[in-house]
Amino acid sequence: MRSLLAALRFLTRLPLPADRSTAVGYSTGAAWFWVAGALLGAISIGLNRALLVVFPVLPRLVLIIAVQFLLTGGLHWDGLSDSADGLLGGASAGRRLEIMRDSRIGAFGAMALLLVLLLQLTTLQSLPPLWLPIALGLAPLWGRSGMVLSAWVARPARREGLGAAFIDSTGWGAVLFNVLTAVGLTALLNWRWALLLLALLFVVTLPFDLLCRRLLGGQTGDTLGAVNQLVESAVLLLLLYLMLRLLSHPGDIAWTSWGWSGHWGLR
């Protein structure tokens, strides 16, 4: 329970009791990152349902993303912007890490935030109403699992800081717990989706880790936050692709719709 609370305290701004009795640290909660993702997804689904009768889809999505931002303190968005500034703005690993420490946002960081935000908004807006709650639930679940996988395969770019501690302490058990849980929950909808998203997770995280090794010497807390945003965006794009394929190839219903209810009016 202490590790679960540590994960939720780190990944959210929920009013949870502080734990100062031990040096458990946020890194020991890695196995429970999926819970934070599932919780944020459930809140987003509930908000979408509550606002459905009040607002059209675009204002509704803006409000949902705003609430997610408040619940997480913008943690992963900050990591995305810092990573973009560092990876694209320096001439050496040391200079790139120095840029990432700077609290000011640069042109690359601002552009990365804008592009990823627009990508997520437009992708979600393009989904049919019955697919939207699924996307809102799956994206944060897989995003947090991607952070744990990325931390496991990474080496720290710095020897100090929370990111280094998290990378050093994340073991294969936490990775299996997160990834298998994400696969299992997705398989309740469609086991083929679960396999596709599992493959997508590796397609996003492993090349990004190689990029960070080459340009930074490893990963930091900022790059792990960026991984979350990249995985979430990739999940949304894959769901949009499956929906579009369903419209153009109705015979592929097994791959593109829910395994336990293949019709749902989406043919």
Structural class: mainly alpha
Largest sheet: none
Low-confidence stretches: 20-24, 260-267
- Radius of gyration of CA atoms, rounded to a whole number: 18 Å
How would you describe the shape? globular
Number of strand elements: 0
- Please tell me the total number of domains: 1
SSE string, helices as H and strands as E: HHHHHHHHHHHH
Kindly estimate the percentage of residues that lie in beta strands according to DSSP.
under 5%
Helix percentage = over 70%
Tally the helices.
12
The end-to-end distance, rounded to whole angstroms, is 44 Å
Mean pLDDT: 89
Defining traits:
267 residues; mainly alpha; 72% helix
Description:
By secondary structure, this protein is mainly α. It has one domain (35-256). Helix content is 72%, strand content 0%. The protein contains twelve helices and no strands. The longest helix is centred in the C-terminal third of the chain and has 28 residues, at 221-248. The chain is globular.
